[in-house]
What does this fold into?
Amino acid sequence: MATRRHGRWLLTRVAAQNVDRRRARAIFLGIAVMISVGIGFASFVAGWALRAGMATSFARMGADLVVVPRGTLVNITSSLLTVQPTDQTVDAGLAKSLSSIPGVAQVSPQRIVPMLVGGRAANVIAFDPGHDSSILTWLERHQPGQLGADGIVVGGRLGGQLGQQINVCGMPMTVYGRLGKTGVGPFDDSYFLNFDALTQIISICRSSAPGIGNKPDTVRHGDEKVCSPDLLPDRVSAFLVQLSPSAKIDEVKFVLAQLPDIRIVEGNTVLTTSRLALSTLLIGVAVFTTFQLTGLLILVSLLFSAIVQERYREVGLLRAMGASPNQVMKIILGEAAITTGLGGLAGVVFGAVLLMAFARSLGFYFGLLGIPFSWPPSGILQASAIVALVFSAILGVAGAFVPAWRVRRMAPYALIQAEAR
It folds into this structure.
């Protein structure tokens, strides 16, 4: 066992000496590896951060298209597509037809209802948390767990603390979360709950309807009709439609236009196109990185082919002195792993410098556009740095494998005579 360890240490030492003998060439190869690994490491971390930020920003758009009853007003802003308060509704069963249309990724139904919340008239928006695309993405603070039938979400301009009890048309509810300010008035001044809670509230309104005649303010608040017993639970005010990345907006709109008594509203076309093209952009970056690493692999292979050819006589003498073919191969592969491994270590440092510069320049600019730049978790950073180091060493071994295997199969006398010729 001790002899094996000594032999491995000796082979590693010979490989390190070979690196030092051609210092300039090793430095240039290390720089090439450093640039490639550094750019790859920085691209991964920056792509992780920007992808999360862009996904959050695009998710807050609300929808690519909104399907509403004909005559309903829709509020279109640069960040959110929402429906204005309306009495018009459509059948909730339309969601199945919309989901079956090619190119539609998700359908989010919403119902806007005027209600008494804490003794004041307010708009309450019922939604399905499992298919939501515009509400939960704006949550700033919320309680643990999922939104239940006894929970309510408060708009950005309304009062209410987490855990506070609020009475909605006679039904006590707990504040589950608060939304950030969107800049859209109807959205910021509304309360949000799920459809199960709305069904329970409608049931309460119907059961208390006979006794309401003596208290007309419980049905009408000023000029608004609230807590009406005539509400139907199987109706919705709008369907928010998100498209799949491969969808064509015009084709989806054409199919939707065949449905009767509805109106189709398109959101910000620039943001929609950008969101749909995000996955294509990330794939393009991955393909570019793959070509870059493939080019580096070819460079390492060519360089070590020249290095091995220069040392035919030296390798032949080592073989004549008793070195086995495997030992010669290990020396060559060890030299490649040391050179590219050190280049990979420098590449991680170089990538960190690029990331710091990116965060202080383009990262700040993206922040102004509303796309947050947040670093990945420390575990991801450490794992990616280790992978970069290991990958750089493997890249050197892979590049030098063919030249090392070729020289391994040659006889000692053939190696000495080959250099003599």
The chain has twelve helices and 16 strands. Residues 8-58+276-420 form one domain.
